[in-house]
Design a protein that fits this description.
Bound molecules: ligand C2E, magnesium ion
CATH topology of the largest domain: TIM Barrel
Helix content: 40-55%
Structural class: alpha/beta
CATH class of the largest domain: Alpha Beta
Number of helices: 25
Length: 756
């Protein structure tokens, strides 16, 4: 990629070069044309000069030749045909007037005498000569041109003609060159013969008419050999001025280009240097460095741009400051938010700071204020709370708003009593809080405290623990709770169970154990109760009551019940196929009884395994009956219609009324194991009356938690219909149960007591 600097320099050089080339080209073109025109003019002038010279020369010659022709002695010699005298006179005269040839021609046109050489004029030449009276002609030798002057010799009639020829030779040509300043040549019409020339014989200018010379050709005569006059100006000489001009223009042009390139390079250098500074500044800004100013002094647009960049930098810095503040501070109170509070506390903890307590204040009543008095009042209350806290705490960075209705206060107070006192003060203050004007509201506080370094070494954990304690505070006197390690572990365990309960169903971490139920009337194990077990990957065996409670709260119980139902009925069907007729009891929760689809589900699963409703017993706690009674009743009726029997589990611990029990489609009561396990006087009373009551309502009675022989005997004697407990067997895995059953079938009675 060509840099901007180079591109500007190239462009400037290109433009200037092109402009210079165009100007120089045009000027030189015009100058050359002008020089040529002037050369041609000079040639024309030269031509006239030569013509004048020839004319003058001819006039002089005529004068001298006339003198000879009128010389008496000469005329007499011609008349007397005295040839030696004539020849001698011709020679003398020729010598005297520097003619190269003299010829006497008779009136008949024949040559009579000639000198110094003997020349015989042909008739054509003679005719040409005599017709034009004086002209240029080759005399004797075709290679030599002469200026010819003809004069009659009269005595008194014309008795002959004297022809004088003056050779046109190189000397004349040189003389003419000196006169005209140009090369002069006399050539034959077709230029096959050069009669005379000022050019050196070696110079080939004659043949090279166009390239080295400007040439003008004049026809000298129209008769005879028709010689031509060639005037030539050396192109180099003629154009010398033009060449000098073009050289200087070239130099000037080159200088202009160099100058332009230098200027362009200089200014592009300057611009690119500025641009680079601007780009550096932009990069700095993008990297978040707003401190260095964008200072470029150049008095042009670059400076304007730099100023704009500076303004932008300041704008971005300000906005970023605002955004950062918004991200770290609560807009309403201007207090640090949760994240910022954690950052501040972390820094404090890292520095090995002094111990402190994180106090989370959970403010109750805000939602009610928002919904009844409006958000504006709610906001005013929060503002007022923040001010009160600030007034109370009086230290910077010691208060934060970490959630809608939660504030964090940091106290350096070491004494728990002092922290409690602070909490009490705040609770009192917020009990009646006036919010501008005459609005007064009442807020209640739940306060949780966690301490650094005792409870956590990082701020997020510390705040979380204080927050957790604030949740516990509802149950404490004074609405304040300090973080408790045990409670925290319990919370974590509960969270793990919540998180993993779905996976337990899907990943097959669940299993069922079965506890036999002894039927007093038939003296055999008539059925089993299916009890759920969960082996968690990290927690190990989780007590069933613990995760059932979580499942109920997290609305996962339906999922679990269905899993148990499916597994238990599959098991029952398996046993049935192997000749073991056992009823299976499955525990269900209140939620299942309000689930309108539940009976249909039970029906489907029974049908899938080809089992009748009598195979299944559902155990429902008393508590489950109090929710949405009409709906529960419908469910129970639907189940009853399937032949499924309903047992009231843990009977005696709840508050179900007799009237309710009579109304509902219930089959049996299962006396809670707490009564059965300890049959003291009071419990005996309860158990016996429960048995009687059940029978009175036409219900069967089951005793669970039967642990010893004494209890067995008592319960049988009181008329209890079914017994269940460790005395018979603990809940057993399916294969254990089968082994157990096989063992007990072999005995006469299923009652271990009778076996002994
Ligand atoms: P539950 O329905 O009353 O079950 C009887 C509980 O008493 C069982 O405890 C059983 O192991 C225990 N038990 C039986 N005989 C004796 C005895 O002689 N002495 C003593 N000390 N205990 C005895 P488990 O298995 O821990 O179950 C506790 C409770 O968890 C069950 O009480 C039931 O309410 C619930 N539960 C168990 N499985 C399920 C289930 O699949 N679904 C639902 N919704 N609840 C279940
Ligand atoms: Mg039960
Ligand atoms: Mg029970």
């Amino acid at each position: 990629m060509a840099s901007l600097k180079h591109r500007i320099a190239f462009a400037a050089a290109g433009v200037v070069t092109a402009a210079q080339a165009a100007t120089i080209g045009l000027v030189l073109y015009v100058a050359e044309g002008d020089a040529e025109a002037r050369a041609m003019e000079r040639l024309a002038i030269g031509s006239r000069v030569v013509a004048d010279y020839m004319e003058t020369h001819k006039a002089q010659l005529e004068l001298t030749v006339n003198v000879l022709a009128s010389d008496f002695a000469f005329r007499s010699a011609v008349a007397s045909f005295d040839l030696p005298t004539v020849t001698s006179a011709l020679r003398n005269h020729a010598n005297r007037i520097a003619a190269n040839q003299a010829i006497l021609v008779g009136v008949d046109g024949f040559t009579i005498a000639s000198a110094p050489r003997h020349v015989e004029l042909s008739r054509e030449v003679w005719k040409d000569v005599v017709d034009s009276r004086t002209t240029l002609a080759t005399l004797g030798d075709t290679a030599s041109l002469h200026q010819v002057v003809v004069t009659p010799v009269r005595a008194p009639d014309v008795i002959g003609w004297v022809v004088m020829g003056f050779r046109i030779d190189d000397a004349l040509a040189v003389q003419l060159r000196n006169l005209t300043g140009m090369e002069v040549s006399f050539v034959s019409r077709r230029a096959d013969e050069t009669y005379a020339s000022s050019l050196m014989p070696s110079a080939n200018g004659l043949h090279d008419r166009s390239t080295s010379f400007f040439t003008r050709v004049d026809q000298l005569t129209n008769d005879g050999v028709m010689p031509q006059l060639l005037l030539q100006l050396s192109r180099d000489d003629a154009l010398a001025g033009y060449y000098a001009l073009s050289r200087s223009m070239m130099v000037l042009g080159a200088l202009a280009v160099c100058f332009a390139v230098a200027i362009a390079a200089f200014s592009s250098n300057r611009i690119t240097r500025h641009l680079k500074s601007l780009a550096d500044a932009a990069r700095r800004i993008s990297a978040g460095d707003y401190g260095s100013p964008v200072a470029i002094r150049s008095n042009d647009e670059v400076e304007t741009l730099a100023d704009a960049l500076s303004t932008m930098q300041a704008g971005i810095a300000e906005r970023e400051r605002q955004i950062r503040r918004q991200a770290t501070h609560d807009a309403l109170t201007g207090l640090p938010n949760h994240e910022q509070a954690v950052t501040i506390l972390d820094a404090r903890m890292r520095d090995g700071g002094a111990p402190f307590a994180a106090i989370v204040l959970h403010i109750h009543g805000l939602h009610e204020i928002n919904s009844s008095l409006g958000l504006e009042v709610g906001d005013a209350v929060i503002g007022s709370v923040a001010r009160r806290l600030a007034h109370e705490v009086r230290a910077e960075n010691h208060i934060a708003r970490i959630a809608d209705n939660r504030f964090l206060v940091v106290s350096e107070e070491r004494d728990p009593g002092a922290i409690e006192a602070l909490g009490a003060r705040l609770r009192d203050e917020f009990e009646v809080l006036s919010v501008g004007g005459d609005i007064q509201v009442g807020l209640s506080l739940q306060i949780g405290v966690a301490e650094f370094p005792a409870h956590a070494r990082d701020a997020a954990t510390l705040v979380r623990k204080a927050w957790g304690a604030s949740l516990e505070a509802s149950t404490t006197k004074g609405g304040m709770a300090f973080f408790n390690v045990d409670r925290d572990a319990q919370h974590k365990r509960r969270l793990t169970i919540m998180r993993d309960i779905k996976a337990a169903v899907l990943d097959d971490q669940l299993s069922l154990v079965y506890q036999p139920k002894y039927d007093v009337r038939t003296d055999r194990i008539g059925g089993v109760e299916a009890l759920l077990r969960w082996h968690h990957p990290t927690l190990g065996a989780v007590p069933v009551t613990e995760f059932i409670e979580v499942a109920e709260q997290t609305r996962n119980i339906g999922r679990l019940t269905r899993w148990v139902l499916r597994r238990a009925l599959a098991q029952a069907s398996g046993w049935r196929q192997r000749g073991m007729q056992l009823t299976v009891a499955v525990n269900v929760s209140a939620h299942d009884l309000t689930d309108v689809d539940f009976p249909q589900y039970v029906r489907t699963v029974l049908a899938e395994h080809g089992l009748s409703g009598q195979t299944l017993e559902l155990e429902v706690t008393e508590g489950a009956l109090v929710y949405d009674l009409p709906r529960v009743r419908r469910t129970l009726e639907a189940l009853h219609a399937l032949g499924v029997r309903i047992f009231i589990d843990d009977f005696g611990t709840g508050f179900s009324s007799l009237a309710q029990l009579r109304d509902l489609s219930v089959h049996a009561l299962k006396i809670d194991r707490s009564f059965v396990m300890r049959l003291d006087e009071g419990n005996t009373h309860i158990v016996r009356s429960t048995i009687d009551l059940g029978h009175a309502l036409d219900l069967e009675v089951v005793a669970e938690g039967v642990e010893d022989e004494i209890a067995v005997n008592k319960l049988i004697s009181w008329g209890c219909d079914h017994l269940q407990g460790y005395y018979f067997a603990k809940p057993l895995a399916p294969d254990e149960l089968e082994a157990y059953l096989a063992r007990s079938m072999a005995t006469v009675s299923h009652l271990p007591v009778r076996r002994s």
